[in-house]
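Support case: user asked for a sample of complex input and structure output to validate their parser. Sending the pair below.
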Amino acid sequence: MNFELSQEQQLIQDSVARFIDDKYALEARQKLVATKTGFSTDHWSTMAELGWLGLTVPESLGGFGGDQVDTMLVMEQFGKGLVLEPFVASTVLGTRAVILGATQQLKAELLPGLLDGSRQLAFAYAEEQAHFDLEDIVTHAKIDGTDFILNGHKSMVQHGASATQLVVSARTSGGQADTAGITLMLVDADSDGIKIAGFPTVDGQQAAEVTFDNVRVPKSRLLGSVDEGFDLLMQLVVDGILAVSAEAVGAMEVLYKDTVTYTQQREQFGHALSEFQVLQHRMVDMFMEYEQAKSLLYRATLEVAQSGLGALRTVHALKHFIGKIGIMIGENAVQLHGGMGVTEELRIGHYFKRLLVIDALFGNSDFHLQKFAA
Amino acid sequence: MDIDLSSEDLAFRDEVKEFLDSNAYKNGEDYNAWRLNWFKLAREKGGWDVPKWPVTFGGPGWTPTQHYIWEQQTAAAQIPWDLPFGLSMLAPVLMNYASKEQQDRFLPDIRERKVNWCQGYSEPGAGSDLANLKTKAVLADDGSHYTVTGTKIWTTLAHIADWMFCLVRTNDSGKKQTGITFLLIPMKQDGIEVKPIITLGGAHSVNMVYLNEVKVPVENRIGEQDKAWTYAKGLLQHERTGLAGISRSIVALEKLKKQAMTVKRGNATLMDDPAFRAKVAELEVDLLAVEFTELRSLAAAAGGSDPGPESSILKLKGTEIQQRVQKLTVEAGGIYSAAWGALPVGHKFAKGGMSGYLASRAYTIYGGASEVQKDVIAKNVLGIKKSSS
């Protein structure tokens, strides 16, 4: 048992922390939120130069060769700055899909652009009727000679509008909610018949609705095997859950620490707010639950790095807890900041909004508790 | 004790329903013309435009049950928008503490919804600890006017208000609760600057109000100089009772159930999901209880006296319930609750859900934060003496 970081991991963590300190003060971030793309292409290039975009790409393919633990270290720091660049969409999910599912030829074609940041992927899996059930897929693909013909609609595709390619889950056989009969494929964002409508989300990030109308996708763009894509889909979603959970833990840390600082400065009734016992206990609760969330994050991440989908139950536990505790810490941070807490001026509201969105991503707190109990 | 409605009450309920139905807004109608006419018609019914005003000031003199029926019926129907500042917050202070001349000057316009008021209470250093307010008013040597300088914060709708009722400090010596004075200040004049505060949902409803040597005629002072803390405290209790929003929560919960039934989960809907169902059920149970707590409080206040400390229970419980309804709406929206901006995405109700939820976080802060409400109950109801913080 050892929770110490390796020297390499420590270096990554320090360099991401420095990046956040330099680039992600609230005012700078909100300026990026207001731009059309909603993030900084300069920051994206920096991430490429520092090797973060190849974090989990094997060394033999030009990457850093890391695993979910390394992603966790990066994402926890990203959570402290509420980073806007499409790292989860393109690197954690998209690039990972390519590594796990693409042919050697396709990898060779895509990886240079993915590592230097000129290519950007998005993960199109959610559908309106599915609520949070991954296997509930109506979007379908028919085989026609050397192509798939893709039809359907994907929702809330994170950073869908700025992506060059989409990783899409489609039904190639079976019933609407069968785990068999699902196929993943890589679709060019500029294909004929594709419509991508981008919009902001409440946390200042970007998403898109995507419709496919007889979109032709060459079979060579298959990820994994035909009809057997569910496991790959699950692996990607698990990595996504671990990443946003690490981000959430970083955000929670900012929220509870900002609250402790603020209540020591703000005076009412002739006392600093922090002198009121009822508020002290509330902050102790926030701190304790934050530490618990961090423990579950470490546990789930280490278990997945070791045994993949064998650790699914712990992942459900984690995502349930992150949703519940993220909102609890966010609501309390706002309440303890009083009126200031509900303004856009202080940063805590922005962290709170991100935690609300993280709860909704990849299945909310209730959904994962039910999966855990099942 | 009897919870059945009497035949008179049933007849009243039908009369209210009839009034609401026959005067409902019709699409295409000029909204403002409809609104003003609605209040005129309500007035002709015998004070229905000012249900909570006492009979001596033109109110309907309803029984607690009739008030309850009115709340229930109007929460479910579409009635014109109305603001509480003049009607429910300032008017009771005027009725209790203003001179006859002042009442004649201000109450008719409030009643006819001609003038928008805002409340100048909180300051950057005086939130929950309102008595700590520092905005200074100095009486001129000839006694003709005050000169007011200071900053007010969280002033709702100050940017559209014609007038502000304002607490100012006229005396620094002694306890901070003494030395506070109640002034009525016209907003459209030199020396007043209103700056928007943008809240979490991106909305602009609250403001900073800067007052710089604003001259206020002494005729605009309500009651005595230095004595306004008592008036203001009464007003806060009125404010708190109004903030519970129980009838609205009942309507909102029914709406939420219908929305959840449009969210598919396999062959069923979200309303069939056991976890979601249980949360809705818990809310319904709490609403059944708090609805009767409100009735009991209404009955106690039937004599026309100020609502007592029990109104703090309603604010606490009522606002928590409003927040829980909003939170469930966000949960029901699933991933679509995250969508922002103009593009329609996913379930229709989802986007309104998130802004409603974010706005609701302020409910347990304004009008006296929940923590302060609990202090009030501990002190005034339980009789617990505070030894230290």
